[in-house]
Amino acid sequence: MKLAAISVDLDEIPCYAAIHGLDVPSGSEHAIYDRAVPRLAALFAREDVPATFFAIGRDLDREENRAKVRSLAQSGHEIANHSWQHFYDLTKRPRGEVLEEIAKGGEAIVRATGVAPVGFRAPGYTIDDDVFEVLEELGYAYDSSVFPCPAYYSAKTLAIGAIRARGRQSHSIVDDPRVLIAPADPYRRGHPYWTRGKGLLELPIGVTRDGTGRMPYIGTSVVLSGEAGARVLTEMIAGRPFVNLELHGIDLADADEDGLTWLKPHQPDVRRTARAKGAALESAIRTLRRHGYQLVTIAEAARRFG
């Protein structure tokens, strides 16, 4: 069984402003839902990919966003929970607040689609045992937050420090470094969560095979690598029983077309055109298929591995 899933975290533009300690210029607040989501939906339709979209609950208060999420669900895509407000420091908050964040996020998805989400992804990939326990209490089938990637962990830590050195405050936080020793293939979480056990099924974010250094196999690395680089990265992850390619909506945003030129100095991926980034993603998808991977939603992968 060789399965692959492509997921999209629907973080709106204010989330990126929060990472970089910036204000959001008027007029660009909804660029992900208004501009990037239609591009992603069209790409997945061309490539016949059933994707998983992780929605932030508060964004679904906007009718236009609810309509897009509803349309995605009706097209066969999975809508999963990315919390209510996307607090980057979710793991630092009281358990009652964690419960509310996850429950309210799920309720917003039910109101938009009529279907309760079965999967969760933590903001910024940062999770802990308390969050896992809340997910189990609420009856979730899987989590997909663990990202055991040394290169990403180092880059994130350095970026937060650089933002602080410039006199701004990033809302992003770093995970427990022991996440780096977590399994990179599907596993049931133990105590602590980076060990195997009998708990909730975890489907980790994609990293290349262990012999290649567990490099990040996510939207940012794929789109910045171009078509040829995307093929190389995909060759480096091929062989894992499950490939979990995690994107963000911004991976198909276009700075010049979408009013995001103010993000260019801070966000490298918006310096590439949406067309170039789409070509890189298509290259990765086609390479996965050449290696015999079946593209499924994460919920379907969880059902089969579970």
UniProtKB/TrEMBL annotation:
Where does the NodB homology domain start and stop, copy by copy?
A: 18-296
Per the UniProt entry, the signal peptide is none
Molecular function terms from GO: hydrolase activity, acting on carbon-nitrogen (but not peptide) bonds
GO terms, biological process: carbohydrate metabolic process
InterPro entries tied to this protein: Glyco_hydro/deAcase_b/a-brl, NODB_dom, Polysacc_deacetylase_ArnD
At the top level of its lineage, which domain of life is listed?
Bacteria
Q: Where are the transmembrane segments?
A: none
Protein name as catalogued: Polysaccharide deacetylase
